[in-house]
């Protein structure tokens, strides 16, 4: 378990963005997530999409919401790395699952996917630099 007193004290790669970037990026992405995930839930409620389409969105949301408490509350880099891999995996699954039902939702989540791929590499790098 990798405990630390402050994220600022961790060794980060030179390509890590400044901390001020994360808030605005996530604010934009959370709007995208709310709209697209909400639409998938609406389709499920209206019986226009099966639960198998909704499930990866629900799991993605759960894993996404647990990342911050794990990373900044528990201060556990290893568990945060596992969690972000689950965020990435469920997001890819969600995009593929919704493709036939609501293609625009898949496209709308591409910026989220790009950011999560970047964030995954960042998290795994930070974890490896701070054993």
Structural description of this entry:
The protein has 131 residues and is mostly helical. It has a domain at 50-131. Helix content is 76%, strand content 0%. The chain is built from five helices and no strands. α1 (19-45) packs antiparallel against α2 (51-74) and α3 packs antiparallel against α5. The radius of gyration is 16 Å and the shape is elongated. The N and C termini lie close together (9 Å). The model has no long low-confidence stretch (mean pLDDT 95).
Helical/strand content category? mainly alpha
- Unreliable residue stretches: none
Shape assignment: elongated
How big is the Rg?
A: 16 Å
Topology:
Blueprint: H1 19-45, H2 51-74, H3 77-98, H4 103-108, H5 110-129
Helix pairs in contact: 1-2, 2-3, 3-5
What brief labels describe this structure?
single chain, 131 residues, mainly alpha
Explain briefly what this protein structure is.
Helices cover 76% and strands 0% of the residues. With 131 residues, it is an all-alpha fold.
């Amino acid at each position: 378990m990798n405990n630390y007193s402050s994220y600022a004290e961790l060794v980060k790669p030179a390509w890590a963005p400044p901390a001020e970037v994360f808030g605005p990026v996530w604010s934009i992405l959370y709007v995208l997530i709310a709209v697209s995930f909400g639409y998938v839930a609406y389709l499920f409620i209206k019986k226009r999409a099966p639960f198998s389409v909704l499930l990866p969105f629900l799991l993605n949301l759960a894993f996404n919401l647990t990342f911050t408490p794990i990373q900044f509350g528990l201060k556990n880099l290893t568990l945060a790395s596992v969690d972000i891999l689950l965020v990435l995996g469920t997001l890819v699954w969600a995009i593929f699952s919704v493709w036939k039902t609501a293609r625009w939702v898949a496209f709308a989540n591409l910026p989220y996917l790009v950011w999560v791929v970047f964030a995954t590499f960042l998290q795994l790098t930070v974890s490896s630099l701070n054993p």
